[in-house]
Each structure stands twice: as structure tokens, then as C-alpha cells.
Design goal:
4 copies of one chain form a homotetramer. With 365 residues, the first copy, chain A, is mainly alpha-helical. In chain A, 61% of the residues lie in helices and 0% in strands.
């Protein structure tokens, strides 16, 4: 190492390349901004991919040590923090006025953000459902890409995604079965009690007229069918598998148990990430409307309407958003038996292998 | 005044009242958050109304001195800054989990954000088109309100709105006619040159097949009809009147002239305000999805789907968003005659009444 | 309950009181903003106090179950999210210009933000060191308050703070002693190896002249004294007790162990909260400079200079910020014995009391 | 152009270069983040420089047409919007923990952010006073740079800065003299009336004891000396020249006149930019404290203490922050004569050269 020059900030960051990569086609002042903001987007997409790759690697095995969960959560938290930057970058782009954009817009055709390979990779890594994906000008989103990029994305589409890994991780949770304790029959009983009470309330309610009573009962039966589907008593047609949804439900309901605290945070961060991209797409759609009005996009899409449709449809974890549909009030939740709680806690302070009595675990004296 | 006690921070802010106004119905820890965040929303709605009232008062007269435009712009800028706070407050609300919300949610029924009188007032002050407004449970949005609040909103609905005032202000701009210079015939000629050139390009393009050529020509004729409507040569069916749209177009295209700099900023801030509320509604919809899943709202609406529909439909200044549809590239814009430019500048430095030659006005030596 | 009126949004939020509490002394348009923004600050201070109270209650006992740690972390995360709102509210206040402030500023004297009882309570709850607290006009910060408020703060000053509770919680961590494994002698040995290697490097370095070598060695001995103080081999003069600092160090270094993941997050959030208030004070100081220039504050303080000094000095968890001073690179860290790691994990899947072998715990098949 | 390939998103943005420029020295996962976030900083620094260059070019001439002011303001507004992104990027960097940083930190020595050539260029373009600039390790900040970079900065240091241009632009404002109207003697008289009234109030105040009276009078004489310096009646020792400060004062006080609306916004944006960098430095200092504790920086500086000192001292437009010191309440301001106001308005609607009577100018019917 004696010969190596000491690191220098400029060279370490390869700034000759990064700061030499702005090559406008037209040369208007704002084209420089346009290039820089998109390069910054792509730098951050690259970082998001690096985080997702690490998250996927951690989740990939069949045996995920708990110590990895903290890293997975930290990786997703970082993605959420990066998304804030992505949102603010749209505000920078919005300082460009439509008239200034028009100076160089025609020179870009047919280049377009729909050609962002990395953004498509992110969608694949997250696990966007190919069936809900919008077409681009009536064809596959890959048709607008160079052949090597299209091929790369076709491969990526087949690789297991965050959605897939999370589904498998959830489905193999050790908490769906607890020795002799049959959680789900307790849960089913609690649901039935709740529905019966609701039916009685509606039937006896003094201020409801017949029409309102009929409507509320119809609504209640809709809810009942949802529970039936979840519990295996009726047809189930969600993307996320039933065992995975049950596990997510259990984690959400008993999130205070030590062993579930990090898994619960993992689920929350998945919602955050989905929300972050949905809002980014939404704001991008508003920006496009404001920038080009009713014109079509440089890539030939339907402009802001395409982006708005993507904001609504390109959601990955919608099933997790739906989860609260199946929540029972805390007071109606089945209590976990002591031995189950014990398994979900730590045992400190004694020699290894000598479990402490619960709840004398923890940070006690 | 000799007897008055000196002002004291706590009393000046009436904190006995403000900090004594949290009265939970259930008492769960997070209900306190729920109340505080909604009270903070309402405080900010009140401030937004105060700003809009001042803006409306400034715009109301037939003779708006230029010195007022700066205040109007500053008022709208403040609203935009407040909207950032509104966005962030949603993130605070999102720290409440669905399970925690469930603890006290039933106690709130049928109270609901759809009963926010001030938010409806803001919609009226801005000028939300009653024809696009969503119904609440199949009826008027006023049906869920107390009689005095419903009456107050009915009055507010009839009062002139920001949309109305902006429309009238735009329509009476002194710049639609410039003495002998007929701007709009110059503009029409420039549009026709552009459309003709585009037609020729499509007709002669070597790589287009017949189908593509047909499609592009159809698209071009669609654009041509849009211009025709704008210029009075075809049916016009926008909410914003044609003269107002023309004035907004002119301001946007010649925004660098001193007299148009602030009017241009005024238009930009209208877009910002519309965008800010659209994004607030969008994020509110995502929050509702995450918080209650597929359940109906406490007020009986269709929950997150109602909010998402409002985000898409409750836009006030959509016609201004569409404006870039009619932009010509700067190089194709008709040049303003010198005497027109002179009228749009200042004349300093000489005795009053002795106009300087343009461009020897301004901050010169 | 049959007689109770159904909840109504306006009444539930006590909006008659909240929206009736703006009582300007002067009446300038911007005084309304000034009042609203400060009322919103106080509403959020109240919520922060509610969160801190819950956090303190959870931490108060001698036996803190691990299941409480998740709630403590969630409470602090909420405070951090609220701080974002506080930052943005300063930007709203900054839309008021100095000239507009001057319209009503004199009417407020001597009322001032230094009289915010709730902000002082937050400082006490967090555990601001009374010895570092700035005086207000040469006297106690309580001298500017009404007698009942001063008394309330005097009591609050004596109550145990977050700093106190965190210190005790850290000091009683079960991880400072691990049965037969003497962590700290391993750590001390690793430190000594590192320091010896550094000394050798400096001594043998070919490009250092005598002066540079002398300086680097002096710096190294400074570092060595820091380690000695930490490890009990030298005088220790931090506010945070030595055992607490050691525990925080251990948690930070082995944060991936399941039992330490949430405690590590707790430490991170303490830093975030401290940082959030430091930045709020800093921005408040800039705002004050811009708003009143070199004038004194309405409360008689030295204006923006007082606020800037507070930003620098009113830090609560500075000792935790200093922690990385004592970090060893991961490669030099003593490895935890298997039985220690086992105690820091969960054991699922078997009957309670039948520990699984580590690492076959966790989310495995 | 027939041969040119149509633009493609990936190539247009030179993504082979930008996304191929991450070359870690160590390879830890978080080093990728560290590189990306700094590359993103440098991309944005480049854009800020592009904006400042355009702003400087517009301000450089002796004859700045009013139509340029709008562009200057828009350029500064863009910088402010970019600063938001810079702030958020610090939060991304903060998701890296000190332990993770330690994995690769030693490999970077002596590379350091103090070697950021572009950030130094920004400081020069803004006009950081060389006399207030902190030394780096006891020497010039240029000593840590490669020779070509040091030379480039030495040149940049000598070029006229934004501070210089703003100063000259202010000093040549046409509003310091208004024909026969002697604004400054009116202003001086108003100041004297105000000071005399204050002296009388203090002398006659019933509740002041002798000591308090003495203190308040001393404070008042300090204020009086400040006014004397401003008005040329006493020694003046600010960096910003007296005529420039007077012009800034006048613009701030009469900002509602049409001709001053944009100049006023220009002054506000200068404050915003200064504030944005001050807060970025401050948060950077907190981040450094948290990341390395009491260690020295990789570049050999005093770590977070260096950054905190820079946050306090590296302010460019502090004199403009001080401006409100000299504000009079609006009620005490000298009124502008009608002919002066007329010159500050527009004259529309008549033939060029036929001034309209004020205030029948503007957006009237």
C-alpha cells in the first residue's frame, strides 16, 4: 500500500465522471437542472436497489435469525428516508416553468422517464403484480427499452421479490401454532361474538328505519364474509396467501410481545415504502399536468393521466393496508397463555439454559 | 390603559382555553393525539381562511392597484407554507397504529372529518365547482352538518370565490388589447405556422407507416381544435372563461416584463395551492386506508375510496394546469412592440411625468 | 347513554373554545398568524408532554418488562415526528416580515416565548442540566413567570427526568455482567491492543517529521485518557454515570442481538429528540435575527443571541452523542460467548422451558 | 441530424458514468450510501453554482433592466428549494450508524468534506468574507487541496461575488434620491422624534427604579448610535456599504410599491439562502457529533466543533439580517410624495408616453 496515493475527496467520489456527465441536447439553462435532477433520482434509485438487495438477501433463506430482522427494518427505514428526498426533488423540478421546459422538451423526444430501468427494477424488487401493471402505449412497458435493458428486466421480473420473501417469511412464522393452544379457534369465537352483538344492536336499534336497518345488515354480512374468507370458511382471493395474512394479523395484534416488536416494525415499514412511492407517483402526476398540460408525454404516454393511474394501481402491499379490516378491539382479543408469552420474551440473568420465570425477565433489578 | 396588566404569554395566547379543550370520549392515550392533531388542523384552517379573506378582499374591487398584487401573492405563499405543516401533521397522525385507533374509534361515530365546517369553507373560498363535488352517503355534504353550520355553508357557497375573482381580474387585464397592436392575430398566425409545419413533418416522415401517420395526424387535429376553441374559432367548454384563459396565457408567455412578474407569480401560487390540497387529500386517503382498511369511515362515507376520489376531483384551478397545452416555444412567440414593452416597465430617474426612453429605465446608472 | 347526543366533530374538538381563543392586542393582520402559530406550538408541546409522561411512567419502575421498550421507542418516535411539524411552523412564522411584526410587536411587551411554561416543562421532563441552563436577564428563568407557573416549574425541576430514568435503566442492564464472562476485561484488552498498534504506527511512520509525530502522540494519549476514564482507570467527570455510559456503549456495539435491538433504537431516538430541539432552537435564533435584527427580545433577553446560545448549550444527551469516541472497529470487538448470545435471543417452537439450541431459534423452518 | 440515434433516457443522462462512479475503498454496505449521498451533494452543488452564475451574470452589468430581477429572484428561489433537498440528505446520511461508519472510516483518511471544491466555490460566489473564514488545521482552507483546485479557488476568491454585485446594485438604486424630495432628512426627523419620545417615557416611568432607568437609557443611547452610524452622523463599520444598507432599508420599508416588490423579494431570498446554508452547517455539525463523538475529522479538523463554528461564523448577509434594527413602525414612516409613488408604478392603457394619473394605473377597468 506504500505506493497508493492517499485518498482525495474529488477522486474518491469520481467527480470527474459525475460532474462531467451533464450533456444537454439543447443547452437551455433549465436543461441543466432537468439533467441534474434526473441524475440525482437515478443515484437514489441505485441506493434504494442496494438496500433492497440487502433486505432480500437477509430474507431469502429459510432460517432467518432474529438478529437479521433489525437489519431488514433498518434497510427499509433508510428507503423511507430516501423517499423524502425524492419528494423534495420533485419540488426542485417544479421550479422549472412550462415555458422554460418547452425550450428543450422537443429535443428529448422520445426519451422519457418510462425508460428508467432502475425504477422498473425497484418495482420488480418490491414485487409489483404484473397483472396490475399499466401498459405503455398499448404495449409492454419493456417495448420502449433497449434490448439489453428489456432482457435485464425480464430476468428481474422472474426473480423472487420482497413481496414473495415477506409472504414466505410470514407463512413460516412460529406463531401460527403454539403447542396445545389453538389461537385461531379463539379468534374465530371472538369474531363470532362480535358479529352476533352487532346483529343484535342493529335489530334492536330504536332510531333505524327499515331501509337503514337493511343496509346496515347488508354491510355486516359483507364484513362477515371477509372474516370467513380469512379464516378459511369461504372463498379467498387476495394476492397475499392466507397463512401470510393470518401471520401479519397476529403480529399486528400482539405487537407488544418482545419477539414481535421488530416484525411489527417490519410490516409498518413495508406500508411506509408503498405509501412513499404512491405519493411520489401522485406528485409526479400533478407536476406533469402543470408542466405539459394536456400534451402527451415525451415517451408517448398519456402524460399526467398515465402517472395518476400508476399512482392508484401500482401498489404492492395493498393487502397489508387492508389488514385493519380484520382487527378486533383489544378488549375482545384472545389472551395469549403464559407459556406462549414466555416464548416471546427474553430470559436474562441466569446461567444459559436456566430459564427465568416470566415476567422476571427483562431489564429488572 | 394605565390599569391594564402587562401582557403575559399564557394569557395572551388564551392557553387556559386552548390547552383545556382536549376532552376525550374514551380516554385512550392516542385519543389525546387524535384530538390535538385535529385541533391543530382546525387552527391552521382558520389561518388559511384569514389569508383567503384578505386575498379575496384585495381582489374584490374593480380597480386593483398593482401594489396590492404583492400582498395577494404573499398571502398565497403563506397558504402554501401552511400546507407543508398540514402534510407533516398527517405523518404525526400516522404514528398512531390501527390497533390504537380501534380502542376509541367506535366512541366517535358518527363524528367525522366530513363535518369540518372550516374545510368546507376553504373549498368554497377557493371556488370548488359544486358540480364536481362528491356526495356524502348519497346526499349533500351539508346533510351531515348541524343546521347552523349547513346554513353558514349554504351562504358561503353563494359568495364570490377566489376562482371568481381571479377570473374577473384576468378578464379585465389591460394587456388583452394594446392600442394598435393586435396580439391575438399574431398569436393565431404563429399557431397556424406551427400546425402547418407539424402536418408537413408527419406527411413527409420517412419512418412512419400509414397507421402511425394516421394516428399522429389525428392527434394533431385534436390539438388544432383545442387552439381553435381558445381563439374563439370553435366551441369552448371550460369553466374558466375564454378571456380569462387568454389573459393567463399571455401573462405566462410574457412573464419577464416587469408589469407581469407579480401576476405570473400569482398564477403559480394558485397552482401550488391547488396542488397542496390535492396532495393533502391523497395522503389522507392513504392514511385512512392504512388505519381502517376496508371499513367505512366514522361518518359513514366509503372510507379511503371517498378521500381518493376527492383528491382526483376536487381541483379548483384545473384549467390553469391545462394552460401549457397552448404554449408556443419562445422562438415562435410574437414579439411585443417597443411601446407595449415600455408600458410594462417603470420609468425612474427623471422628473415625474417625463418618461425615460426604454430600456433606460430600471436600475441603471 | 341513551340520552347523550351523538358526537359531532365541532363539539368533540371543542372548536368554540379553540377557534374563539385568538384575541389580538393590536389587530394587525399578521398578529392573527402570530397567535395561531404560537397556539399550535403550545398544542404540540402539550402532546409532547403527554408522550414524555407516558415514556417516563414506563421507565419509572425498577422492573421494566421488555414489552414496554417498544412503547417507549414508539413514544419517542412520535416526538421526533412532531418536531418536524415544529420546524415547519417556524417557516410559516417566517412568512411574516419584520415590518409587519413591528406593527404589533410593542403591544406584546413584556410577553415573550421565554414565558412558555410548557416548553420549560419539556426541558425538565427531558432532564436539561440546571447547571448549563442560561439565565434570563441575569436571573432565574422562573423570574419572568407568574408565581403559580414558577412554583409548578420548581416542582417539575425536582421530579425525575427522562435523563434520570434512562440513566438508571442503563445502569441496571443485565448485560454488564454475563456470568463467568468478563466482558470489560476483554474490551480493555482490545482497547490496549489498538492503542499500542497506533503508537507503533506513529513511531515508525516514514513521512512524519518530529513535530507531527509529537502532535499525533499527544492526540493519542488524549484518547487513551478518555478510555481510562470510561473504564474506571482515571478520573471520570461526565454527567451520565459510568455504568450507564458503559451499558450504552455495549448496547451500541452489540445492537444486532435480538434483546438489544429495541434498546439500541431507544438510544437512537434520544439522540434524535435532542437533535430536533437543538435544530429548532437554532432556526428560532435565525428567525429572531431576521425578524428583529439587533433589537432585544420582547421579554428583555438578548434576542437572537440568547436563542443561539441556548441551541448550543441546552443539550440533554450530549454524553450519548460522545459515545462513538469509544467505539472499536467491529473487527476488534470481543466476541460474545454462545451462551450470552443465547440469552439475548428468543426460543420458539418447543414447549416452554425447553430452550432450543442457538441459532435454531427464530423464524426458521 | 438524420443519422443521429433518437435520444434514450439512459444515454441522455449518461448513466453509464453516473452509476459507474461508486468505487468504495473498503466495501462495507454503508460505504455505498456514503458515496452516493456525497455524489448527490456534489450534483446539487453543481446546480447551485449554475444558478449563482446566472444570477451573477444578470447582476453584473451597470444597467440591470427590471425584467432581469424576476429571473434573479427565481434563481435564488430555486437555490432555496435545493437547500431543502440538502437538508433531507443529511437525514439519509444519519441512517448510517457510527459503528457502520467505523467499518470504513479509516480507509478514507485524509479525504474529507473540507476538500469539497464546489462548496468552497459556492462560498466564494456568495461572497463569504475571507476575514471571517475559519482556518483548517491552523492553515488556509486551500492547503488541504490539490494544487489545481487550490489555484482555481484562489482565482474564484478574487472574482466579484453575489455580495459585491448586490452591494453595487443597491448602491445605485434610483430611489436614494427623488428629485426635490429629501427622503433621508424626513427619515432622520422621524428617528429623532421616536428616540425623544422613548427618552421621555423612560424618564417619567413610574415603576422604574434608578438602576433600571439607567440601564434602559444606556440601551437607548446604543440604539441612537446605531442610527447615527447608518445616517452618516457617526462611525460606520459594517461590511455592507452605507449607501447599500440605506437602499436595502428603503426597499424593505416601501416594499409595496410596484417597482420595489421584486427587489424586496430579492432581499428576502438572500436571507433565505444564507439561512439555508447556516442550518445545513448546523445540522451537519450535529450529525458529525453523533457519528464520530469527540474524534477529529478524517481531514484532521476539530470534527463537529469546526462545523459548529462555521455555522455561526460563515454568514454572508448578516448585515441584511440586522436591518430590522433600523425599522420604524409603519405609522412613523415618512410618506412618499405622489410623484415618487407614480414613478414606482406602471402606466397602462394609454398611448405610450402618455402617463396615466396615479393610481388609476394598474389592473383597473
Amino acid at each position: 500500500m506504500a505506493d497508493a496515493a492517499p485518498p482525495y475527496y474529488w477522486d474518491y467520489l469520481a467527480l470527474d465522471e459525475v460532474l462531467g456527465a451533464q450533456r444537454p441536447l439543447h443547452g437551455a439553462h433549465d436543461e441543466h437542472l432537468f439533467i441534474v435532477v434526473h441524475q440525482a433520482f437515478e443515484l437514489w434509485f441505485r441506493q434504494i436497489l442496494a438496500e433492497l438487495d440487502q433486505v432480500l438477501a437477509a430474507l431469502a433463506g429459510d432460517d432467518l435469525p432474529d438478529r437479521e430482522i433489525g437489519r431488514v427494518v433498518a434497510g427499509l427505514e433508510r428507503v423511507v428516508t430516501i423517499q423524502r428526498v425524492l419528494h423534495d426533488q420533485l419540488e426542485v423540478l417544479e421550479t422549472m416553468t412550462p415555458l422554460d421546459f418547452l425550450d428543450f422538451r422537443d429535443a428529448l423526444i422520445p426519451a422519457s422517464g418510462v425508460q428508467s430501468v432502475q425504477f422498473r427494477l425497484i418495482e420488480h424488487r418490491l414485487g409489483l403484480d404484473p397483472r396490475t401493471r399499466l401498459k405503455v402505449k398499448g404495449a409492454s412497458y419493456r417495448a420502449v427499452l433497449r434490448a439489453d435493458h428489456a432482457a435485464l428486466l425480464e430476468d428481474a421480473e422472474r426473480a423472487p421479490s420482497l413481496f414473495d420473501h415477506v409472504e414466505r417469511w410470514l407463512a413460516r412464522t412460529p406463531f401460527l401454532h403454539f403447542g396445545d393452544f389453538d389461537f385461531w379457534s379463539s379468534y374465530r369465537a371472538a369474531v363470532e361474538r362480535m358479529l352476533a352483538a352487532d346483529r343484535a344492536t342493529i335489530a334492536a336499534h330504536p332510531t333505524l328505519d327499515d331501509e337503514a336497518r337493511r343496509q346496515q345488515l347488508a354491510q355486516l354480512e359483507h364484513t362477515a364474509r371477509g372474516f370467513a374468507a380469512l379464516l378459511g370458511d369461504g372463498p379467498y382471493d387476495r394476492r397475499l396467501s392466507r397463512p401470510a395474512l393470518l401471520a401479519a394479523l397476529l403480529i399486528s395484534l400482539y405487537r407488544d410481545e418482545p419477539a414481535l416488536q421488530l416484525p411489527f416494525r417490519l410490516l409498518q415499514r413495508l406500508l411506509d415504502v408503498d405509501e412513499g412511492f404512491a405519493t411520489w407517483r401522485w406528485r409526479h402526476a400533478l407536476l406533469a399536468h402543470r408542466m405539459i398540460g394536456g400534451k402527451i408525454g415525451t415517451g408517448g404516454t398519456a402524460g399526467h393521466e398515465y402517472l395518476e393511474a400508476a399512482a392508484r394501481r401500482h401498489r404492492v402491499f395493498a393487502d397489508l393496508f387492508d389488514l385493519p379490516t380484520f382487527f378486533l378491539p383489544r378488549s375482545a382479543l384472545p389472551a395469549l397463555p403464559a407459556e406462549v408469552k414466555s416464548q416471546m420474551g427474553f430470559r436474562y440473568g441466569g446461567p444459559a439454559g436456566t430459564p427465568q420465570e416470566w415476567p422476571r425477565t427483562g431489564w429488572g433489578r
